[in-house]
Design goal:
The chain has helices at about 20-30, 40-55, 60-65, 70-75, and strands spanning about 5, 10-15, 80, 90, 95. With about 100 residues, it is α+β, with helices and mostly antiparallel strands.
C-alpha cells in the first residue's frame, strides 16, 4: 500500500521513490525495495526518511532531524493512501463504473 511520509514540514509519497533511491534503501537495510515499509522497523523508517530528506537537505541536516524524532512522531509521519487503481477491470482493462460490459467473441 502506498503511503505519504511527512518530515520537517514536507510530504513525500512512496510511489515517487526513484530506482536509485530504492538501491540506496537496499544498501542501507539489506532488504529488497519490494519490502520498503517505514512501519516494519526503526531501521526501515530511518532509511526511507533519509531517502526523502536527502532530496532537499544535506546529510548532516537530514540525520539531525531524525535524531530528534520520537517513535510517536515517526508513527504519525506515515499515512497510508489509497492506490490510484480502478476498482473494476474487464478483460484486463480498467472499466469505468458506469460503462456497459464489453462484448466478447
Amino acid at each position: 500500500m502506498p503511503y505519504t511520509l511527512t518530515l520537517a514540514g514536507e510530504t513525500f509519497r512512496s510511489d515517487d521513490i526513484t530506482l536509485d533511491e530504492a538501491v540506496a534503501f537496499e544498501g542501507a537495510t539489506g532488504q529488497s525495495w519490494r519490502y520498503l515499509n517505514p512501519h516494519r522497523s526503526a531501521e526501515q523508517f530511518r532509511a526511507v526518511a533519509l531517502i526523502f530528506l536527502r532530496r532537499t537537505r544535506e546529510m548532516p541536516e537530514a540525520e539531525a532531524i531524525l535524531a530528534k524524532m520520537s517513535l510517536r512522531d515517526a508513527l504519525a509521519a506515515v499515512v497510508e493512501v489509497d492506490e490510484d487503481l480502478p476498482d473494476e477491470y474487464e478483460d484486463g482493462l480498467p472499466k469505468a463504473a458506469d460503462a456497459a460490459s464489453t462484448p466478447t467473441s
